[in-house]
User: Which sequence fits this backbone?
């Protein structure tokens, strides 16, 4: 199965090439194959929705893509690096190029909005002014002026905007979002996905979004579905 990039900003060639990918948990009779014999190509810059019932393996696939989990078997090549075989250093470098967005935002409650955005780059030496970049991103997600607020002072949608800014601070080439609208009402969810798409596109980032929400899935370029750890659909573009 192959998923192409649509629209501006895409570069030639697949950013993600997956072949015969497998990941299991547990042992013996309790062994669960969360991802099994999965093959897929996603071109750089594509925005892909990943659908499927609970337990079908979506989060596991996202964790594999992000380099948080290691595959048991198969190939998982992201920007030329096979994460199944990469050494520790290469895996760390990969993780730095991934922006993560979660359903429950995972903001640190004691930190200000600005400091939350800065968290991923605090330990890193980066070729830009971290604070200036964080402020710029907060502006881009519509939160200029709220830098000193704490997460508890923000609505759910605003907290997810902070999480999106945090995901972008390291200039990711891949954005992995696990149910990013799952804690939001549906209008806010579509708005947040629109924002994520816009900021992702501006950076030509490839984006994979796990979602149960049909509206969110339809707003992506492609929809792929999983069941029992396998892909069930062929990644055809949905009609506009
Ligand atoms: N760390 C783990 N240890 C044991 N089993 C796991 C682990 N992670 C995932 N699983 C199992 O793997 C299967 C796939 O889980 P996964 O979370 O990837 O599915 P999902 O499609 O993301 O589900 P949901 O939509 O509910 O988040 C499930 O049976 C789950 O219980």
Assistant:
């Amino acid at each position: 199965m192959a998923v192409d990039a649509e629209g501006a900003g895409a570069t030639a060639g697949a950013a993600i090439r997956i072949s015969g990918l497998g990941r299991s948990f547990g042992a013996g009779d309790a062994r669960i194959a969360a991802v099994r014999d999965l093959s897929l190509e996603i071109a750089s810059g594509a925005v892909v929705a990943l659908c499927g019932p609970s337990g079908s393996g979506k989060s596991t696939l996202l964790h594999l893509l992000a380099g948080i989990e290691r595959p048991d078997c198969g190939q998982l090549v992201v920007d030329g690096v096979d994460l199944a075989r990469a050494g520790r250093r290469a895996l760390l470098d990969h993780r730095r190029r991934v922006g993560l967005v979660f359903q429950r935002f995972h903001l640190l409650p004691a930190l200000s909005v600005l400091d939350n955005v800065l968290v991923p780059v605090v330990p890193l030496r980066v070729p830009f002014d971290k604070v200036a970049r964080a402020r710029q991103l907060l502006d881009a997600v519509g939160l200029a002026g709220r830098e000193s607020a704490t997460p508890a002072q923000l609505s759910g949608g605003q907290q997810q905007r902070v999480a999106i800014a945090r995901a972008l601070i390291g200039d990711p080439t891949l954005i992995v979002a696990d149910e990013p609208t799952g804690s939001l009402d549906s209008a806010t969810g579509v708005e947040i996905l629109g924002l994520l798409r816009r900021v992702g596109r501006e950076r030509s980032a490839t984006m994979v979004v796990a979602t149960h929400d049909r509206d969110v899935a339809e707003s992506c370029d492609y929809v792929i579905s999983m069941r029992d750890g396998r892909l069930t659909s062929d990644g055809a573009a949905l009609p506009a």
About this structure: The two ends are 21 Å apart (CA to CA). Residues 25-26, 32, 34, 52, 54-60 surround adenosine-5'-triphosphate (CB under 6 Å).
